[in-house]
Model the fold of this input.
Amino acid sequence: MPAISAKASGKIILFGEHAVVYGQPAIAAPVTQVQARAMIMAEPRLPAGSVRIQAPDIGLESWLTDLPENNPLAMVINQVFVKIGVDQPPALTVRVTSTIPVASGLGSGAAVSVAVIRALADFLGHRLTDDEVCALAYEVEKVHHGTPSGIDNTVIAFARPIFFQRRPYGNQIEIFKVAKPFLIAIGDSGVNSPTVHTVGDVRAAWQADPERYEHLFAQVGALVQSARQAIEAGAIDRLGPWMDQNHALLAKIGVSSPELERLVAAAHKAGALGAKLSGGGRGGNMIALVTAETAEPVCQALQQAGAKKTILTTIQ
Ligand code: PMV
Done:
């Protein structure tokens, strides 16, 4: 049997991170410049049921049965077997590679899950719908995030810009129209910041002062609604100041950092129309709204201000 592979892109949150965990809406979009890839290879020489996992980027080479149950890769593989009703899989190797930096707000965990789910299901002769892929990936997100909203697995499974709102009985997921494509420069602070920590800290702060935090989250939610309307209307210039306001609210929520502040300031100075952290915060990536003219100077300024990497992506 030939090897089967699947890819999944990274993502950015344009507006609404953290508040989205508390029921406010958020907007996210795929970033195709970085990708996770899963390849499934048949191993006819190994006994049936042998599942080998190779993830050279993180130095992992193991049998599935040797990994702890809560290992995200083991979880995702076992979930596909359960979903498809496979008791004993054919002998196979799952090989995972990724160019998405980990713990940096670009959705690396969700992208690996989505790529593995698609490739493995295809290999086993079952094509899953985007909804099914999304739901399986969400289960693994709980290991990465603690109390995830579900936005990461959703935008990555659907691979389109989405408006997302967490709901107790079925999340609201809308693929919305980008009337006029726009450019976003992404700057990586180089600081690893696992989302589970920032989400946990925000939860503790919210529990200590729910009124203050609910008010901050509601202000973020209002910006998200305005931003969606502007994107659907092609009024891109309006987004810049709203990104700045969203960033200021995230700083009040407690998830900015000196490195992110430096990058946001540098982007502004070089002509960005707006800038904010993106994802869990305290490190990871920030984003800046740029034009064809300011893209290059903003990326250069970000690098001079300490960005380990910059990516220019088009939201469309
Ligand atoms: O995976 P990250 O770092 O992009 O964070 C996801 C966004 C949060 O709102 C911080 C968490 C969540 O589950 O929505």
The mean pLDDT is 96. The CA atoms of residues 37 and 44 lie 23 Å apart.
